Amino acid sequence: MITDHQRLLFAALFLSTGAALLIYIVSGISLLAAAGLVLAGAVVISALIWKGSDAQSQEEMSALLGIGALSGVLATSAYDLSRFFLIEVTGIAFWPFDIFNVFGQALVGAGYSGPLVRLAGLLYHFANGIGFALAYTIVAGKRGVWAGIAWAMILELMMVTVYPGWLGMQALDEFLQVSVLGHIVYGAVLGYSSRRLLAAREEENG
Q: Would 37 be classed as within a structural domain?
């Protein structure tokens, strides 16, 4: 059985990509370098936690990883789709998907552009969404939709604190409309899917 201490530490490791972005914004070092350093540390700590756990805990952690990753893919996809539909329906001029290019250039260098750069940024975006979902699932996956939304609002607060100054945003009202809706949808899907998947696993295991 995973202890509360192990659970919290294990969950914190999946905030690594978000931590790397903050390091990049504050320090100006390459996002790739920051992510590499943070993720390397996370991998080492994860390996130590895994090695020090019994077979039952390892099985539980494996299940949480699978369920958290699937919930993260679903929640991040819903996050992006909800923002796209809001823009299409309301005609909001703010286009949040430019962040993919920003992430991509932060990873490979500001002098680069094109589809591969945007793809790198998109993958980083999904790594963030899945990582945050894994952290939530490990700690609070059984709590349901409202807990998922509460977690998403914490992420929203972090974004609102950092992004406008970092990116020099002007259309803050539109940014907030798009961002808040996206995070509500993200949290609802994450809370619902992680709870249902964890409940299904418990039923299978009797």
A: no
* Count of domains observed in the chain: 1
At which residue do the structure tokens 């490990």 appear? 138
Q: Which domain holds residue 199?
A: 62-204
| Rounded (10°) angle between helices 115-140 and 4-13 | 170
Taking the C-alpha atoms of residue 43 and residue 18, their distance in angstroms, rounded to an integer, is 15
Predicted TM-score of the model (pTM): 0.94
Please state the three-class secondary structure of 108-169 as a single string. HCCCCCCHHHHHHHHHHHHHHHHHHHHHHHHHHCCCCHHHHHHHHHHHHHHHHHHHHHHHCC
Distance, in Å, from the CA atom of 36 to the CA atom of 49, rounded to the nearest integer, reads 20
- Nearest C-alpha neighbor of 93 from the set 183, 180, 168, 174: 174
pLDDT tens track for 53-63: 888 888 889 99
| Ramachandran angles phi, psi of 193, nearest 5° | -70, -40
Establish if 91 belongs to a structural domain.
yes
Q: Is residue 39 part of a domain?
A: no
